[in-house]
Design goal:
Layout (H helix, E strand, L loop, with lengths): L1 H6 L4 H7 L4 H9 L6 H11 L7 E3 L9 E3 L16
Antiparallel strand pairs: 1-2
Amino acid sequence: MSSARLELKLTQKEVAQKINEKPSVVQDYESGKAIPNPQILGKLERILATKLRGMFILLGVERNPTHLIFLAGNDIGKKLTPPGKK
């Protein structure tokens, strides 16, 4: 998400203004702290001209590489179990 923002030469504050959210919301999405919200993702996709839903996104890779969230259908916001764990 940040790479798309930087390609458009936009700051987090500018993106937040364009989607009518606080800059901290954009910061939390980029850092992986936010739980994805379909409405906010839709607004971000329009502003950034990139698809953010329907893909795997690694959240907090530095802190915990097992946290994967799949952004599609009924799985939105659900953590997936790493392979080999039940």
